[in-house]
Design goal:
alpha+beta; 4 strands; binds glutathione
Length: 211
């Protein structure tokens, strides 16, 4: 099966899919969509992905969008290692950890949101404050939700979808100087996961285009 990932090196939603592809050992090619140049808004890209967002995965010509849907597709086609627990309660817990990041932190801090704030006259310092606010609010909840059932990783001792979402969000938090000491469970799980080859090889610094 031919897999082509359309992504941007610094996009955290793309970073999630890069991690999942690596965990599954799924061979793929990458096509860069330079968000800073506005490539996501070009007609040719929008014809395939009307949302104008990355990532997008082409699988033998079928186009998949939305990182969590792409990861669910990967889990179905490359079952090992599973990224969601088989048990229904555990599965719901892991999805809720992942959604705390993917549905409730990330969309508020997306490039197009920050660009919109700038167009509305919000200064850089206030935009940074906005960014940190939503990360802090989300991380406070995530720490409380995850801590009771965390192990080596965010849930137990196996990597799950929650870690796949956590590591890119921690990368973003560090870029924006969000203090992380209040979130020991997140810091621990991030360090454990980030040390794995599949995560390390997906890091933005490892996939950034040569300057
Ligand atoms: N919910 C989507 C979010 C995708 C998304 O927001 N991607 C960002 C990069 S992380 C993007 O393409 N931004 C382009 C823009 O804001 O113009 C997913 O999980 O795939």
């Amino acid at each position: 099966m031919k897999l082509v990932l359309y992504d941007y090196w610094r996009s955290s939603a793309s970073y999630r899919v890069r991690i999942a592809l690596n965990l599954k050992g799924a061979a793929h090619e990458r096509v860069a969509v330079n968000l800073l140049d506005g490539a996501q808004d070009e007609e040719a890209y929008r014809a395939h992905n009307p949302q104008g967002l990355v990532p997008m995965l082409e699988a033998d010509g079928t186009r998949l969008t939305q990182s969590l849907a792409i990861i669910a597709w990967l889990d179905a086609h490359f079952p090992e290692p599973p990224l969601l627990p088989a048990d229904g309660d555990e599965r719901a817990h892991v999805i809720s950890l992942a959604m705390t990041i993917a549905a409730d932190i990330h969309p508020l801090n997306n490039l197009r949101v920050l660009k919109r704030l700038a167009r509305l006259g919000v200064e850089q310092a206030a935009r940074d404050d906005w960014y940190r606010h939503w990360v802090r609010l989300g991380f406070e909840a995530l720490e409380a939700l995850a801590a009771p059932r965390a192990g080596r990783f965010l849930f137990g001792d196996q990597v799950t979808l929650a870690d796949v979402c956590l590591v890119p969000q921690m990368y973003n938090a560090r870029r924006f100087d969000v203090p992380l000491d209040p979130y020991p469970t997140l810091v621990r799980a991030d360090a454990e996961a980030a040390a794995l080859d599949a995560f390390a090889a997906a890091h933005p610094d490892r996939v950034a285009p040569a300057a």
